Amino acid sequence: MKRIHRFLAVSGFFLASAAGCLPVAFAQNCAPPHRMRVVDLDMRPEPVLQNRMVESWRVTLRSDRNGECQTTIEILDRDQVAGAGQAVRIRPGEAVYVIPATAGYRFQGKDHCLLVRANIGGYWSPIEAQRVFCAHSRQATVWSLKE
Q1: CA-CA distance, 10 to 4, in Å (whole number)?
Q2: What letter does residue 46 receive in the DSSP assignment?
Q3: pLDDT tens column, 80-128
Q4: Residue 105 belongs to some domain of the structure
Q5: What is the total count of domains within the chain?
Q6: Measuring CA to CA, how many Å separate 138 from each of 29, 114, 143?
Q7: Is 13 within the bounds of a domain?
Q8: Domain membership flag for residue 7
Q9: Cα–Cα distance between 107 and 27 in angstroms, integer?
């Protein structure tokens, strides 16, 4: 009887794993030689009216890893954290990850160029990007990441 229970428990673990239902804690760390690249960065809402707050960021990442890995993603505006996520599982290929904006974050002043970084092995590292993502003020009342 114990063998049957053990078999069912192990079978359930593998089925959950194949379905992507395991908690983040089971994913491996995204340490090198794993390579990630930011393909796109969007914000919600888009555009943002002056004196309004950004609600969330949508980061499109491309991962060359064969399996999933775990990391934490942040969006930086110069030295200010504009968005901070909890641990996420990075999937192979291209995928979109929603990162909540930091409470109270809003655009002020001139143009804002944003950097996406990840906590890799306990150290924050910038993630290489296809292009520079800058929010520009249009008509002095609206901010947009669209070029």
Answers
A1: 10
A2: S
A3: 999 998 888 999 999 999 999 999 898 877 778 999 999 987 889 999 9
A4: yes
A5: 1
A6: 40, 17, 6
A7: no
A8: no
A9: 35
